C-alpha cells in the first residue's frame, strides 16, 4: 500500500472534509467537502490550506469579493469552471493541530503549474503582509 506524503512539493488541489477544518460545519455537513490549494511552506515547514470557491455562475456576492480584492480568479486543473482563491488560509485543523496531508479526511489531487502557483503565492503573501501591517 502506497503511503501518503506529509509534506508536498508545489501547490496541489485537495478535497478536505468539513469536519477536519471547520468547527462551524461540524453539525450541518460534517462529511461534506471543500476544495483547497495545499502546500508545505518551505520556511516554516507548516502545511497550509488556502480556501477556494467555484464560480459556476454569476453570483453577486462572489463577484463583489473578486472586485474588492478578497480573492483572485484562477482556472484550476480538473475543473471546467474557474475558481476564486480566497484570502483565508489554514495551518491547523479544528483541534488546533497542524494540518496533516496523510490524514484520511484529506485527499490531495493534481499539482498546479509553476506560473499559477507563483500567482497564488504572490496573492497570499501580499494578503499576509496586509494582515501584519494592520496590527
Termini gap: 48 Å
Spatial arrangement of strands, main beta sheet: 4-5-3-2-1-6
Number of strands: 6
Shape field = globular
Uncertain stretches: none
Number of domains: 1
Residues in helix, % = 25-40%
Strand content: 25-35%
The chain-level structural class is: alpha+beta
Q: What average pLDDT do the residues reach? A: 82
Largest sheet: 6 strands, antiparallel
Gyration radius over CA: 15 Å
Order of helices and strands: EHEEHEEEH
| Tally of helical segments | 3
What would you say this structure looks like, in words?
This protein is α+β, with helices and mostly antiparallel strands and 135 residues long. It has one domain (12-127). It is built from three helices and six strands; from the N terminus they run βαββαβββα. Strands 4-5-3-2-1-6 form a six-stranded antiparallel β-sheet. It is globular. The protein starts with 11 loop residues before the first strand and ends with a helix. The relative contact order is 0.23. The mean pLDDT is 82.
Amino acid at each position: 500500500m502506497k503511503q501518503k506524503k506529509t509534506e508536498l512539493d508545489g501547490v496541489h488541489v485537495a478535497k478536505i472534509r468539513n469536519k477536519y477544518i471547520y468547527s462551524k460545519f461540524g453539525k450541518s455537513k460534517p462529511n461534506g467537502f471543500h476544495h483547497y490549494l495545499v502546500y508545505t511552506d518551505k520556511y516554516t515547514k507548516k502545511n497550509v490550506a488556502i480556501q477556494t470557491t467555484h464560480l459556476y455562475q454569476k453570483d453577486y456576492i462572489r463577484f463583489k469579493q473578486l472586485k474588492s480584492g478578497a480573492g483572485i480568479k484562477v482556472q484550476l486543473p480538473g475543473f471546467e469552471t474557474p475558481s476564486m482563491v480566497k484570502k483565508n488560509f489554514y495551518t491547523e485543523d479544528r483541534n488546533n493541530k497542524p494540518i496533516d496531508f496523510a490524514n484520511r479526511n484529506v485527499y490531495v489531487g493534481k499539482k498546479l503549474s509553476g506560473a499559477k502557483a507563483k500567482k497564488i503565492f504572490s496573492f497570499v503573501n501580499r494578503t499576509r503582509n496586509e494582515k501584519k501591517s494592520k496590527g
